[in-house]
Amino acid sequence: MVTTDSKIILAFESSCDETAVALLRPPSELCASLVASQVKEHAAFGGVVPELASRQHLTNIDFLFHQALEKANVMTSDIGAVAATSGPGLAPALLVGASYAKGMALGLGVPYLAVNHLEGHLLSPFFGEKVIPRHLSLLVSGGHTQLTEVMQAGHYRSLGKTQDDAAGEAFDKVAKLLGLPYPGGIEIDRLARSGDPKRYFFPRAFMDKGNLQFSFSGLKTSVRYFLEKQKATNSGADEALIPALLEQELADLCASFQEAVVAVLVEKTRRAAIQHGLDCIAVSGGVAANSALRSALQVLCEEHGWELRLAPLELTGDNAAMIAFAAFHRLLTGERSSVAAEINPRWKIESPRFTKK
Ligand code: KG4
Ligand code: ZN
What we know:
By secondary structure, this protein is of the alpha/beta class. Helix content is about 40%, strand content about 20%. It has helices at about 40-45, 50-70, 90-110, 115-125, 165-175, 185-190, 215-235, 245-275, 290-305, 320-330, and strands spanning about 10-15, 20-25, 30-35, 80-85, 110-115, 135-140, 145-150, 155-160, 280-285, 305-310. A five-stranded mixed beta sheet has the order 3-2-1-4-5, with helices on both faces. α5 (about 165-175) runs parallel beside α7 (about 215-235) and α8 (about 245-275) packs parallel to α9. The chain is globular and about 65 Å long. The mean pLDDT is about 95. The chain binds 5'-O-[(R)-(carboxyoxy)(hydroxy)phosphoryl]adenosine (KG4) and zinc ion.
């Protein structure tokens, strides 16, 4: 077993449009956690362009690594293991972080760990802790929406997933329809604060008894139809899809759409917890930053006397601290990955072990 308590874990995250580096002295001392966001580069395209992301990771990664060492006042000889996100994600983007990390691990002569991005998110509400309790995980991000029963670190059972768009994707697509900047989740959250969530009703999918699956593409389409109808009835509308909505209407629309997403997430979480006898709920991923979702889950857990573990806000979006922490839990079980292991853009949480020696 690798001694993990004294040596630092160096971790890289490059699965999508954030290049991130972290240095973690396990279990809880985060010496550095740097994120270089590419939001501006992709904003013009209204979404992430994989090849552009890959090139930006290449430009950023070495600089970010040296900045992290300097910031933390750490020497490479203090590093005991190197980890990188190896999936799921965009292949050209994953390759940059994983290849850099493998080279670093080989050069330093320390173990390499291929980490599942979803496991990084999923464990983030327990950041700094050595034991992960049995719980229900709700992971909501731009690429994923899933409910998972966590027996302990590394032992996961999928209970429900989105069948089409992820919750964050729905936020981003609706924000685009509304002419809001990318990524739109945070903008909708902000505007919804002054809106009336009951003003409009948008559909909730798969609400039939016991169903734990998600679907958000119909909701997005329903917002599109709503806007088209408004445009048709608004004689003064310009060519854009969105008519000149009054400020209050925009806020009400954001609040009503958000209410539909939150209502589904909370109801499925409630069902899953009851069906599987779980009384601790952990929430992670970019959408876990959503203020309406956080308060609705708080109410749910108070009502049922369940423990709620919300990922710290700074760990909700993509970051490398969560990858270092997941690597720590892999190391605790004696696991290492082979540097020959390839990235896996479709890696599922149910099989978090990449390769084992
Ligand atoms: O976890 P993350 O950084 O990347 C993925 O792994 O996908 O999640 C990004 C997603 C984006 O869709 C973004 O719009 C959404 O999280 N997001 C939010 C909020 N902050 C970020 N969605 C709703 N409300 C927010 N406050
Ligand atoms: Zn993510």
